[in-house]
Amino acid sequence: MKSHTIQLSTTELTDILQAYNTLKTFLEKLISPNEIYRDDFLKGLQAAQSELDTGKLEEVKTFDDFIR
Q1: Number of separate domains in the chain
Q2: pLDDT of residue 63
């Protein structure tokens, strides 16, 4: 596959991100995550949410925090 380089202004990038978020919000109302993602991904997502809810995870604020 051929790759292409594009340049976007800050305004264009902002517009693209807004369009992406609009589509994402719209599709989330129509399609259940169970229809989009595989079971193993959903289980991992649920486990991560559970760890967040119970405080088992620490917020990463720096790269040094991440690599520890």
Answers
A1: 1
A2: 83
